[in-house]
Amino acid sequence: MRGEFHKIRRLPPYVFEQVNRRKAELRAEGADIIDLGMGNPDLPTPPHIIEKLAETARKPDVHGYSASRGIPGLRRALVGYYKRRFDVTLDKDREVVVTLGSKEGFANLAQAITAPGDIILAPDPSYPLHHFGFIMAGAAIRAIPAETSVAYLRGVEKAIRYAVPSPTAMVLCYPSNPTAEVCDLDFYKDAVALAKKHDIYILSDLAYNEIYFDEPTPSILQVDGARDIAVETTTMSKTYSMAGWRIGFAAGNERLIAALARVKSYLDYGAYTPIQVAACAALDGPQDCVDEVRDIYRSRRDILVESFKRAGWDVPVPRASMFAWAPVPEQCGDIKSLEFSLQLMEEAHVAVAPGGAFGELGDRHVRIALVENEQRIRQAARNIKKFLSSRSAC
Q: Could you write out the DSSP letters of every residue in 151-194?
């Protein structure tokens, strides 16, 4: 029998799976685990979206194959959203593709544009797919430190000078998963100018664009000339609590969109039509539900930061996203993120995501998701206080 498949050899064991497996074992033993690990929204999908799904699903002619690019009405709804939110005018037929969530869109875009040996510049720490989507496509990743947006762009510029061959693309993700770092429009202007100067593409992940706590977050497509070199992926998952529905978008550069659409045409027939119609209702309908979701996450953020601080764990205040990015507490010494996460779950019954899953530079941090209610967050803080007070070093 031959050895392990080539692409599988390039993928390390999924760190989240180790945490999830132990979480399942503890729950099977009767433990009440407060799960702040996975970015899985606990809030309900707004009723008018569910009603549109059910109404459409009752029609006899909607259960066949859909359109790989997405139904025209949904692409039109995304165009309307970009116009309202960012004052950006898109062509629904040439600059927009509906995807099965932003993760699928990003992964298939990587497959579409990457040749073996290409160099891709990606942030560290970052969502794993920003690296491994390209690794699976045969690329080499240059991981750029991304503690701040300014530091990341400075690192990109340096990497471009020394990379052989020249990079194909750079990845952006703001608001950032996992760090909750944000950027402003000037950052995007500088990124576009740098990419044009060196003839590289920009792939921007905008999954958390509506979960902001200060000023509204910008889109790279607001920058003049950005559509010459940039594509942006978005999703309905977090904004409308539709994670399991698997519906998202890619928008921007016509050539990149065409490449993605061509790959998708071989792989899928688009999302289930009633889901796409319901997504139209989400984008075109009342947006007070989005404001409500944002307010809930803001309240949870404030309670988490305050209560964890009282428990002895200083958590930096996130400015956006549904996550906090926190250093491993000083009381735990020099242990890495996975060991800390497993100890916290075993002893405090609180699950968090190990920062090492997001890159080498994240291995002294953990990501904390705001996906439990306020009472459960306070209970987590009480458990953590006992956990931290029981040791001077783990």
A: HHHHHHHHHHHH-SS--SEEEEESS-TTT-----HHHHHHHHHH
May I ask the CATH class of domain 48-284?
alpha beta
Three-class DSSP category at 294:
helix
The CATH superfamily of 6-45+289-389 is Aspartate Aminotransferase, domain 1 (3.90.1150.10)
- Please give the Cα distance from 306 to 284 (Å, whole number): 37
- Contact 19/26 with Cβ under 8 angstroms? no
248-252 and 365-369: which strand pairing? unpaired
Q: Could you give the residue range(s) of every CATH 3.90.1150.10 domain in the chain?
A: 6-45+289-389
Q: What is the pLDDT of residues 118-152, one digit of tens each?
A: 999 999 999 999 999 999 999 999 999 999 999 99
Cut 0.85: pTM above it: yes
Question: Which H helix or E strand runs over 201?
Answer: strand 201-205
Using a 10 angstrom Cβ sphere, with 0-12 exposed, 13-18 middle and 19 or more buried, the burial of residue 296 is middle
Q: What distance in Å separates the CA atoms of residue 61 and residue 107, rounded to the nearest whole number?
A: 31
